[in-house]
Structures are given as structure tokens and as C-alpha cells.
């Protein structure tokens, strides 16, 4: 990456009404799994249809990072790099994992998942690292 800083993104999948405290806790757990400080997180990403979810907006505000909204068409372009395959999400959204795909899309060029998504309280979180756009 020649002097550029890595882009670390938390991808989130959740049902409507997910509380921001639960989202933040899961992000912290996922980052901790990979030995990453929460200060190194540059964004939270999810699908565009979650734009009105206050829990996601509040989590991003709490962590002082932007909430990146990814169209389903962009998520579909990274399915070959997704680790976890949810039959339910595939049937409803057309992609195997919102969290993993969102993280990959938002992390940008040469993005890769650090591991499979984690799950708690009907929320999924995946961490990706990339070079940005």
C-alpha cells in the first residue's frame, strides 16, 4: 500500500430496531478477535436499505466513524470473497452475508475479510481490511 494506511471497516447486518449498544459491543468484540484497536476503525458499512436504522447511525456516531451504505448490486460483486453463507439472507437479499459483503465493499481496493462474521443478539459483524477506493 506504499505509505497508505489500511482501511479497516466493520460490516453490519441486523434486523430492524437493533440497539446501538448491541452493535457497538459486537464491533468491539470483532475488532478484539483480530487484535485491532477500535480507534483504527474507519467506517461501519451496511446495505442501503438500512439507511433509516437509528441503531446503526447512533453506533457510527458513538465510534466517530461514517456509516457507509452499500447498494445490494455492489454487495453482489464481492460474493466470491464471502466466507459465511446464510441461506436466509441469500433468499431475502440475494447475497450470502450482508455484514461480510458490506465490509468488503466499503474497505475498497484489495479488500479481504479478516475472518468469518460473528453473531450476537440478531446482529452480525465482519471486519475487512483494504486500501480504500
From TrEMBL:
GO terms for biological process: cobalamin biosynthetic process. It comes from the Bacteria. InterPro entries: CbiG_hydrolase, CobE/GbiG_C, CobE/GbiG_C_sf. Pfam families: CbiG_C. Residues 8-128 form the CobE/GbiG C-terminal domain. PANTHER family: COBALT-PRECORRIN-5A HYDROLASE. This is CobE/GbiG C-terminal domain-containing protein.
